[in-house]
Design goal:
There is one protein chain. By secondary structure, the chain is an alpha+beta fold. It has one domain: Endonuclease/exonuclease/phosphatase (Deoxyribonuclease I, Chain A, 4-Layer Sandwich), CATH 3.60.10. The protein is built from seven helices and 21 strands. The strands form six sheets. It has a seven-stranded mixed beta sheet. The protein has a six-stranded mixed beta sheet with strand order 3-4-2-1-21-16, covered by helices on one side. A two-stranded antiparallel sheet has the order 10-11.
Length: 379
């Protein structure tokens, strides 16, 4: 009971009912005997400290820079991230929190030790890459629920010397409370602003990720693999279909399979398609939330699904067995987080958009230009 009181104390009373209602919706469809293991991914939109780092292009995020990034704005954003992470957990903390677009150890240490998140006991790991702006990815984890066994950074060189080095991919292997090993890859692939050159770079990274995951499929007895983060791409772009070679989950494919008997071809409902334990499946294809939200990022009035959860079939196949072998999940346990305070009404009255921290160099004071995603495993 003391843990519950501590957790709820993190949340303003005005939003507590909304969060608990959302928490109940997220648990719907799971049987009471199973316990939840929740994973969150969130591009937090430029979590920089206020100091210039030598050799990095981060001057805009200083008090004298173009964004006038001072201590007041910085700690406001830290408090907002604390609110989101606490809210996503609901009654119990999210077990793993993948954070994208964070600068360094200092900002993560401040988040976990100098906001109200310190009561939840998160530990963290972070990359230390060569991105020119100094952007990295990080993982917060509950050490009593996820025993860290291995961490490493995967650095993929750019296509040409004219291109910037992108962020490292963070690979973490840890032991779940079930004794199973979970391999998690946190990605922040090159921005879409550089168009074709960035597209080729994303494809190269996905090829490298496929090499790593294929190796895990060969060496792990029960391969439980999750790729998440901001891919700056969506299905069916080639980096998904060709380079990483992901499959869609049954019930979501726009191309049903078929079979031919005695010269007659009939469509096979994809709900009957079996999962391959040694393939990767995309859970975020055509993902929707309330208020006509059809993605995690909105650009020029259109929703885009840039953030993803991609998982090994081993985690999905067990959900079809009776009783299921754990841990397991389904496509319905992957959802967009659509808390009202993360959204802002469009000026033209046509829907909502993420409540951003910055619009250009103007400080809106919001949370992020992306919405979070969550994935629940059960055991």
């Amino acid at each position: 009971m003391s843990k519950l009181k501590t957790k709820l104390h993190l949340l303003p009373l005005g939003i507590l009912f909304t969060l608990l209602t959302w928490q109940g919706e997220m648990m719907r469809g799971s049987n009471p005997p199973y316990r939840r293991f929740r994973i969150m991914t969130y591009n937090v939109e430029n979590l920089f400290d206020t100091l210039h780092a030598e050799g990095k292009l981060d001057e805009e995020f200083t008090p004298l820079g173009s964004r006038k990034w001072d201590s007041r704005k910085y700690w406001r954003k830290q408090g907002q991230l604390c609110r989101v992470i606490a809210g996503v957990g609901g009654i119990a903390p999210a077990d793993l929190v993948a954070l994208v677009e964070v600068e360094n150890d200092s900002v993560i240490a401040h988040l976990t030790e100098r906001t109200k998140l310190r009561r939840l006991g998160y530990q963290y790991v972070i990359t230390h890459g060569e991105d020119l702006r100094g952007i990295n990815v990080a993982l917060l984890y509950q050490p009593h629920r996820f025993k860290l066994c291995q961490q490493d950074s995967l650095r993929v060189p750019p296509i040409s010397n004219k291109q910037r080095q992108t962020r490292d991919v963070l690979h973490i292997a840890g032991e779940l409370v079930t004794g199973d090993t979970l391999d998690l890859f946190i990605c922040h692939l090159p921005s879409r602003r550089e168009e074709r050159m960035a597209e080729r770079y994303r494809e190269r990274i996905m090829q490298r990720l496929r090499t790593y995951t294929d190796s895990l499929f060969r060496t792990r007895q029960k391969p439980s693999i999750i790729l998440t983060g901001d891919f700056n791409a969506w299905y069916p772009e080639r980096c998904f279909t060709r380079d990483l070679n992901v499959l869609l989950t049954p019930g979501t494919s726009p191309h049903p399979s078929s079979r031919t008997e005695n010269g007659k071809t009939t469509l096979v409902p994809d709900t009957l398609t079996a999962f391959s334990p040694h393939r990767l499946y995309l859970l975020t294809y055509k993902k929707e939330a309330r208020n006509h939200i059809r993605g995690t990022y909105k650009f020029q009035g259109e929703w885009n699904q840039l953030d993803h959860f991609i998982i090994s079939g081993n985690l999905l196949d067990h959900a079809t067995q009776t009783p299921p072998i754990t841990p397991f999940t389904t496509v319905h346990n992957c959802r967009i987080v659509d808390f009202p305070f993360l959204l802002k009404n469009e000026k033209n009255g046509e829907g909502v958009r993420p409540y951003r921290t910055f619009l250009g160099t103007f400080h809106q004071g919001g949370y992020s230009d992306h919405l979070p995603l969550i994935l629940d495993l059960y055991y």
